[in-house]
Amino acid sequence: MYRRLFISFLFMLCLFKSCIVYGKESKVILLISSEGYWTTLEDSFLVSALLPNSSIGSMNTRINHKDKIIESYATINVGRRWSYYEVNKLGAVERGLGVILNQSGFSTALFSDKDELKKIIENSQGKTTYTSTDYTELYSKQNKSILEKSDVVLIDMDLYNNKENEEYLLGFINENIVKLYLFCPYDKESKSELTPFLYYDSLNPQSGFISAATTRREGIITNLDIAPAILSHFDIVNSSMVSSGIKIIHNENPYPLMIKRLNKIYYINSYRSKMIKTYNTVLIMGLIVFYIGDKLKLIKMKKLYHGIMLAILWIPILFMMNFYKGFLQIYFIVFLAIVILGLYNTRYEKALGFISGSILAIIVIDTLSGCPLQQNSFLGYDPIIGARFYGIGNEYAGILIGNLYLFIYSIRHYRHHKTMTFLLQIGVVLILGMPFLGANVGGTIAAIGGMVLFYISNHRRNKKVYLVFMIGALGFLVVWGMMDSFFMKEQSHLGQTLFQFAGGNFNVFSEIIGRKMMMNLQLIRYSLWSKNLIISLIILGLYFNPNNQLLKKVGAALIGAMSGGILFNDSGIIMSSTCIIYLVFPYLSIYMDSKAMD
What is the CATH number of domain 27-252? Predict the structure, then answer.
């Protein structure tokens, strides 16, 4: 019996030893490039050789402070949003990839003379296990020795940028078990925030697109995804990191499709700011022209202006019809003209119901379909900016909430309007809040705030309603947060925040609140959205009428939603600005209609 146990013990020991050897043989190589565009990077001998059997895409390199370049590299190390003031007394990065690897018994090596690149894999002492001093030949005796005994290797591609070094590295990769990550953390030339990324597995090479839970977009990841992906190769899990790593989506020939998608992203990015400025200018001018026309008593212009104001409500949907190239202005003019003519002799209530119901349905269907229209809209989210990659963005969240209450106002005379009103509001809250749809936490809280104030304002004499809806809203948030944190595979920002808090990052809430406040203050100072919001509020104040049916029915709900958006969203000003469009313009349309009847 003892003999059998001894033999079994020896067998398990040998098996365990072989696993350790295999783990040591498996290496991760981080090949760092300063080239920010695929069209020039593909000319490299190494890249062109790896490309057919690699998973490719682009990496968003967004950081907290654009003028602090150190953040571009240290953010990769820690796997979460990192600020330059978080360096320790030694000027090093703490609780990051380098520390975790060393504590787990894995070695790191640096093949670069640049201090900023070291930030990607350094430990809390600002060091790596091995450091090369030969920056000419990657195949020198010293460098070969370091490559052989290191687990995670960072190589500065710019230093070893010749065919001899690339041929040696290609041979080394294919002769060993290597996971290769090639990426650009910071584009010094064009300062693009969407840079090339390539992943190659020598043991299991496959072509395709890279993706991650942080983006949920084929071919796009963030700088938060790399560290968790590296740790996963060594079966290490770290709860302080936001991402769950990188996944591969198989595709036989991904490169042409990726370039086509990137061209579209760059096109939208180049025109986005101009289109948003034009849109806000149209909104502001529409309000100013109304004020001047009202003061000059231009009643004869009433019908035409009524149509123009209602047509303005369609513009966010027009932006979804992004034709990519050519004649965008012509499409805009033709579409606007058709809408104006169509609404010229239509009663305002029917027009409002048709417009708000149509916009509501379009946004809901698009969101349930994965937001293909919003991703191609000038009001949608921009992968280059990197504030959001999936789900409904702040602009369309505001538009959705605004049209929700405008539609609720329009159906107030329907027989089952109370049931419809409740179901519509619950539906919008769920669409904004569900993680698998890309939860917009600020938008969800804004929608809940609007719903609570809607019922409170319509049941002013019943104090129990106040308590019931306040407790209900709070209970929903708690249950939603717990389910999102511990039961959902793909967490929302709220779930990620609670998960980080449970993992020991107790400063996460103060960091988020501070960041949101700073962002809204910047938007108030510099964004044209804030000017539109302020002018809209001024116009509403000048023409305020407490007996107006629109204000009486949904005014409190819209104000509550906008307030919630500002308080709990880092771009709450934008959400509130798009939301108020669907209050102020219909309100003025109703005002003109009632004035013409007097």
Answer: 3.40.720.10
